[in-house]
Amino acid sequence: MAELQSKKRFIRGVHNLGKPLSRAVVTIGSFDGVHIGHQAILSQVKQQAERLGLPSVVMVFEPQPQEFFSAEKAPARLMRLRDKVETLLELGIDQVVCLQFNKALRSLTAEEFVKTILVKGLATRYLIVGDDFRFGCDRGGDFSMLKRAGATFDFEVTDTQTLQIEDERVSSTLVRKILRQSDFTRAETLLGRPFAVRGRVVYGQQLGRELGFPTANVQLNRYSAPITGVFAVVVRAAGKVYQGAANVGIRPTVGGLVKPILEVHLLDCNLNLYGQRIDVEFKHKIRDEEKFTSLESLVKNIRRDVNNIRAWFNQANTA
């Protein structure tokens, strides 16, 4: 195990695995959001890895399969790859293996996937999959097929029961639905933590500074975001916590963007956060994103938003 821990914990592509150090306990999926349903699977993986004395491995895909097939029409991501990997490792997984989901991978039959990825690539000893797991270009990969393959290639297979809360299946789709409703309390229940966006602050057009409301900008690098509008947020940066006003959207008043961006204005604080990674935790939605008729109207509404957000924080802190 000491040799295992000396290796990289995030691996891009099975070809970078090299010679497997040992057999592994593996699970496969998109794990978008790493919600409590995912966490139940991860707990099972870690338990079996400890029992067998083997490393725990999570395999994910980039892009996510739905993004490969649907491009900009794919559902909005709940988290970026880096955030997903960090969360999986924080939850105690030994290795995260990321496969590029491309035409070559998509063209593998279920049998080829088992032989190439699970057996040759990962030396799977124990495989845990969700009860709805399907794979292979022929859609021939399901739990019963994996059980047969396990008997042939000497690995055990277990599925997991769907986790339900209030008669609803916990899924990334449900989390997105709850976020669209701006129910951040329920989203926190489903995620097991507050909904947040992590990212590095980049240079923008400096328009916010010119308008009197400097912002820290984080690129989302996606065609859609799970939330849009103006929000009260908590920002964690350089070990400190700040209250802020955030906008997620395409900035229609000042020309508009193709992809949404996260802009955060810290309340009563003017810090230079360029180049720093920040965590933006969403607390309360103020309004939808709007297109205003002029910059003067935009500034007036930003000022109103900031005042409303400050008042919301004051009320929340005294409740």
List the helices and strands and how they pair.
Blueprint: H1 2-5, E1 10-12, E2 24-28, H2 36-52, E3 56-62, H3 65-70, H4 81-90, E4 95-100, H5 103-106, H6 110-121, E5 124-130, H7 143-153, E6 156-160, E7 164-165, E8 168-169, H8 172-180, H9 184-191, E9 196-200, H10 207-210, E10 216-219, E11 229-237, E12 240-249, E13 261-266, E14 277-287, H11 295-318
Parallel strand pairs: 1-4, 2-3, 2-5, 3-4, 5-6
Antiparallel strand pairs: 7-8, 9-14, 10-13, 11-12, 11-14, 12-13
Q: Could you explain the architecture of this structure?
A:
With 319 residues, this protein is an alpha/beta fold. It has two domains: 2-161, HUPs (Rossmann fold), CATH 3.40.50.620; 194-318, Riboflavin kinase-like (Elongation Factor Tu (Ef-tu), domain 3, Beta Barrel). It is built from eleven helices and 14 strands. It has helices at residues 2-5, 36-52, 65-70, 81-90, 103-106, 110-121, 143-153, 172-180, 184-191, 207-210, 295-318; strands at 10-12, 24-28, 56-62, 95-100, 124-130, 156-160, 164-165, 168-169, 196-200, 216-219, 229-237, 240-249, 261-266, 277-287. The strands form three sheets. It has a six-stranded parallel sheet with strand order 1-4-3-2-5-6, with helices on both faces. It has a six-stranded antiparallel sheet with strand order 9-14-11-12-13-10. It has a two-stranded antiparallel sheet with strand order 7-8. A hairpin with a 2-residue loop joins strand 7 and strand 8 (168-169). Helix 6 (110-121) packs across helix 7 (143-153). The longest helix has 24 residues, at 295-318. The termini are far apart. The model is unreliable at 1-6 (pLDDT under 50).
